[in-house]
Amino acid sequence: xxxxxxxxxxxxxxxxxxxxxxxxxxxxxxxxxxxxxxxxxxxxxxxxxxxxxxxxxxxxxxxxxxxxxxxxxxxxxxxxxxxxxxxxxxxxxxxxxxxxxxxxxxxxxxxxxxxxxxxxxxxxxxxxxxxxxxxxxxxxxxxxxxxxxxxxxxxxxxxxxxxxxxxxxxxxxxxxxxxxxxxxxxxxxxxxxxxxxxxxxxxxxxxxxxxxxxxxxxxxxxxxxxxxxxxxxxxxxxxxxxxxxxxxxxxxxxxxxxxxxxxxxxxxxxxxxxxxxxxxxxxxxxxxxxxxxxxxxxxxxxxxxxxxxxxxxxxxxxxxxxxxxxxxxxxxxxxxxxxxxxxxxxxxxxxxxxxxxxxxxxxxxxxxxxxxxxxxxxxxxxxxxxxxxxxxxxxxxx
Length: 398
What we know:
alpha/beta, Rossmann fold, five-stranded parallel beta sheet, 13 helices, 19 strands, 20% strand
């Protein structure tokens, strides 16, 4: 292999640890450099000597073990990793990762790494389906941690159900895909909008909505990972943005100006922002005061329809993606918008469903094109982002 990659493999205390010996063997045969970190409990199942022999590297267990060369081992391994894999990943290590606990060599090193992380969960079915574990998984997925498995079947404890670690061959393929990622958007210019807009009534009050920016940020991050040159047009958000070229806006008119000014230079435009449809005709120059119990009457006028204007300006070969956040007649309203705004794809979600819509880590969407409708189950917003981009690639291919 011309470009030798370094994998740090964490092994935790479960019976599936024996499968990780085969995984190390497979990775070494492919030419990867593999460093193994075992937890103390993992050594009860497979000795460090076994992993040292298979990896041709010292197997690390003790945080305070004297290093062979003078470096801080958990930092040096964290920095050396091109990919950090934990297989098996017990409920314990998943909980530590979700909450930033670093109390042994493995949890300390994975917390310090900047590399992509892949976990292969393995545990009893009851532990896997427990609310605490599932909440930890959502946290990790939304931070960009990759997950493979667990699989269903008969477990070592005698129960049947989800909880078996994926087979070494499947983990190997997942590792290859992460180390040599899909670059199907390479060379494309992609604009993504995200977040809410604000329309002021007076110097201190405004109308807005619950959009956090999570969905747009997930799309921007996923597009960049797939090789795109990303421009993020960002309204008001409540989460940290991804590392890409960003244009900050506040009002719907600001968003309109930014998007229409940039759209002609883009190959793909994905409008995940939630702009206000209306604004106050006359913004008060001073703070509006109460008036002895009298109602406040505001005259609202429509903001420009950004998606419709981008659709009007659409150039040949350009892919336009819109969003439809609805509370009723989901597919009917979304399909109408698809046609009226000259979109290629619309992502529709019912904001009344638990786990969907604004200010959540998950989403439940329907992908609608001119000739196809795909209902997706509840997913992390990063997973939804990749499904949207898969559809963008398909549409570009015709």
